[in-house]
Amino acid sequence: MNVSMNDPYASRTDRTSAIIARRDPVVYKDGTYADALASEQVASYERDGFLLLENIFSDEEVQGLLAEVKRMGTDPDIIKLEEAITEPGSDAVRSIFRVHELSQLLGRLACDPRLIHVARQLLGSEVYMHQSRANMKPGFKGKEFYWHSDFETWHIEDGMPAMRALSCSVLLTDNSACNGPLMLVPGSHQQFISCQGITPDNHYKKSLKKQEYGVPDTLSLQLLAEQGGIQAMTGKAGSVVFFDCNTMHGSNGNISPWPRANVFMVYNSMENTLEPPKYGLVPRPEHIATRKRFTPLLPLEEAATA
Amino acid sequence: MNVSMNDPYASRTDRTSAIIARRDPVVYKDGTYADALASEQVASYERDGFLLLENIFSDEEVQGLLAEVKRMGTDPDIIKLEEAITEPGSDAVRSIFRVHELSQLLGRLACDPRLIHVARQLLGSEVYMHQSRANMKPGFKGKEFYWHSDFETWHIEDGMPAMRALSCSVLLTDNSACNGPLMLVPGSHQQFISCQGITPDNHYKKSLKKQEYGVPDTLSLQLLAEQGGIQAMTGKAGSVVFFDCNTMHGSNGNISPWPRANVFMVYNSMENTLEPPKYGLVPRPEHIATRKRFTPLLPLEEAATA
């Protein structure tokens, strides 16, 4: 297990948990690669590790996107795919992966100038889609999702070399204190939490439902939360959250009657394409982590819904 | 099972779920029995079924109460009692019952003029303690508590005749969107949701950990929430929530590192003391529902912490 000793972001080795300072920039090329965000917004993202932009998509656009996600969630041809993930102990579809390829509308959304230029600006390069999915946390029985850094998983299980990717969550329902909103720990992106435990093969099949490996220790979480607090991304449908690949996040359950839906897209820099997974792990399937074709996304000239 | 056909609040019979209009007042004797609340506050409670009062207890008082609750939660002599309830799948103490008798300080809190006069005013009579408990929803692994009306349980399992009781929750930690705050459905106290399913004996042992009977159906819940919305009782430590015995409430889990602690007291009117449970059920133990001695609580002249 000592193959990784030169890896600044080693995790799940035989050593204990550790907090390691980030080695990579948060904003690349000083945020000059595109001009979607104002400099204060870039600075805010760099400091906190996330940026909430409200009222990006109109009510009409949200309705169109939500209808598409709902349609997909009940489409028998989609439900039967490996891309469709159900809630633990339930038949309700929780997530559908690779939506930017399964849906023409969501494929266009991925290239919408309001999203992709933010990604290009912050990552300082052309970008491709590492992973996309639609999430539907059902009402009444939506389960929690425990704290994690996406980068920890992407680095170990997918072989993503550096912290040069970001996630973007387009809220398709209002997110309030009541329906289990995304929670982020401001500033946590500056620390890498190396996790304990060895990863079994085909871990991804379970981890998409419930994380058991790559789980940060409570002492580190406590420290991060005491330093930065926790911010719940409450906002109206049509808002967009961008967050760095290493920002610690999670969400509580949802017993409210209201489902929580969003489209989630991970842009990775074309200069940060995947290498083999760590520790000889078998690569996760293509719909979880793009590996076969790193194709830069071509920005649309106008809104995806136009 | 037809013994209850004359009971306006029949529930858990062989009939289907139903929404039944409340027969009882919300505020008794026009709120003139005491004068702790202003008339607008009484009107607000009557309309919504709850009232959040902020900054009732000082930081110093909160620290004293919290220290007492923490002490009790680790006191071996208390942990071994039937009064102490642990989290499902964990040793962490989630609730301690009968705290107004187990702790001198909390016994005085029950008679604090800032609490008891509100109860006396709204219920229009002298009051006694139907149930008291300290709740500690631990950080990281605090479980959700699904929607329920307390009165449904108290009526069926404890034989409480009418809706003339209220709960009071003294927040001992800040409650935010992030740590699973109490959620209430405004206006829901005006409807009684009759639940499906028969209650087994000694149900209470499990129901305190996870409710399986007396669970409202999702259609009724949806209706109540569409009508009234859902309000999360977020507020600083030292705030107090008063809510009617029939107000629908619940809480999501808590993955934040911060525990959520409160002291919870149920005041029942001396004119509403318990009868035998419904359907020949065995009465729940004294620490869950006071039955042996209905002793009116004597208001203190000054703050419990004085």
Structure notes:
Two copies of one chain form a homodimer. Chain A is of the alpha+beta class and 306 residues long. Chain A has a single domain (2-280), classed as Sandwich (Jelly Rolls). Chain A has helices at 39-48, 59-74, 76-79, 99-102, 104-110, 113-123, 150-158, 204-207, 218-228; strands at 18-21, 50-53, 84-86, 93-97, 127-137, 145-148, 165-171, 182-184, 191-194, 231-232, 240-244, 249-251, 260-269. In chain A, strands 2-11-7-13-5-4-3 form a seven-stranded antiparallel beta sheet. Chain A has a four-stranded antiparallel beta sheet with strand order 6-12-8-10, with no helix packed on it. Chain A has a two-stranded antiparallel ribbon with strand order 1-9. Chain A is globular and about 50 Å long. At the A-B interface, helix 9 of A face helix 9 of B.
Key attributes of the depicted protein:
homodimer, Jelly Rolls, globular, 7-stranded antiparallel β-sheet, iron (chains A, B), alpha+beta, 306 residues, 4-stranded antiparallel β-sheet, 13 strands, 9 helices
Mean pLDDT of chain A equals 91
- Helical amount of chain A: 10-25%
The best one-word shape of chain A is: globular
> CATH class of chain A, please?
Mainly Beta
What value does the Rg of chain A take, in angstroms? 18 Å
CATH superfamily descriptor of chain A: q2cbj1_9rhob like domain
Beta-strand proportion of chain A: 15-25%
Note poorly predicted spans of chain A: none
Multimeric organization? homodimer
User: Which sequence of SSEs, written as H and E, runs from N to C of chain A?
Assistant: EHEHHEEHHHEEHEEEHHEEEE
User: Which CATH-level-2 architecture of chain A?
Assistant: Sandwich
Distance between the termini of chain A: 52 Å
Order of strands, main sheet of chain A, comes to 2-11-7-13-5-4-3
Cofactor (chains A, B): Fe(2+)
Enzyme class (chains A, B): oxidoreductase
GO molecular function, one term (chains A, B): 2-oxoglutarate-dependent dioxygenase activity
EC number (chains A, B): 1.14.11.55
